[in-house]
Structure of PaaI family thioesterase:
Amino acid sequence: MSGANTLEQASQGAAAHFRSLESLYASAQINALFDSQLSIAAEGQSVIEFTITPAVYHAAGAAHGTIYFKMLDDAAFYAANSMVSDRFLLTTAFNLHFTKPVKEGKVRAEGKWISGHRRVLVAESRLVDTEGDEIGRGTGTFMRSHIGLSGLDGYHQ
């Protein structure tokens, strides 16, 4: 087997893993509550595009912090889990910073793996509004669980 074939097979395996993670995200019941879509284009990177509606507003008429946390955590999580093809990761810690309130409209959560490969991985994420302004930022620590990805109903590889 040539080196080119081995690289092509690895690339196909990674792409299948990314599509399976996207399927896993879509299958989670919590995500039925949000107009959102995950895409993973490369190892260690993820993007979630979602829409803010009045349904997630706090009393002062802007998006509640829970939506910031959920999308920041998910983007960082999937960036990290794109690096791990056998186990489901668990969030063990997450820090977030609110930069700007957001009302209705499209928002993009961008996740990026920072470090770690074996047991603990670190990833960061940021939220960007339609004007291109950063509205929130977070950093998470994720640990390998005993849960195999292949055993999860939404993960199809």
About this structure: The first strand starts at residue 36 and ends at 39. The radius of gyration is 16 Å.
